TrEMBL record:
Pfam families: XdhC_C. InterPro entries: MoCofactor_Util/Proc, XdhC_Rossmann_dom. It comes from Phyllobacterium ifriqiyense. Residues 77-216 form the XdhC Rossmann domain. The lineage of its organism: Bacteria, Pseudomonadati, Pseudomonadota, Alphaproteobacteria, Hyphomicrobiales. This is Xanthine dehydrogenase accessory factor.
Amino acid sequence: MDPFCLKKLNKERLERRAAILLTDLTDGRDRVVKETDPVAGKLGEAIRKAFLTGQSGVIEIDGSSFFLNVYLPSPRLVVIGAVHISEALAPMAKAAGYEMEIIDPRSAFATPERFPDVAVYADWPHDVLLERPLDSYCAMAVLSHDPKIDDPALEMALKAGCFYIGALGSRTTHAKRIERLKSLGFNDDHTSLINAPIGLDIGAVGPQEIAVAIIGGVIKAFRARDNLGKDGN
């Protein structure tokens, strides 16, 4: 591999941005394609599909062969609130291949004993997410039911362009949430990105079924995602 391409590829991977190492099998030349790079025609369509699926492979375009080596950041699920739904969600997220973490300043709830296989941060979302920034390969599930905890997390998720944002609560609760977010400068286009009620509409009852609805919604959004890399502003 060309040293320049390797350096560029490593930089994208280090900063959790998707990239494809495109090799022209006719002459062996390499090129790094970022998700935001415009590529026209059939090759551009094939590259876009590869970014969505994450699948590497050989493609044939107008008599030429290319190998697409796809590098996607590991999807990350950030859960706000160490609640019963979070306990049910943790093993499901792991089984689905999502790196999950829980943030909740209520130290009585956010304990390693309750979540032995999950990174737990007993701190305020704003402080944790400044140290561990969100990006377009992150999903956020807001479950604490406390605006002081939830709202700052939603604000940061919208600005980061998370591929999925869901919030627990009734329609009345969500309407009040939207008004608070609008007072911070967000508009209808921004707030419409929040899935509320959270998860797929499967008539879920109880923590376990709600957790199934959430992970289903996250997976669906990840497989159908669009405009990755654009922030929520």
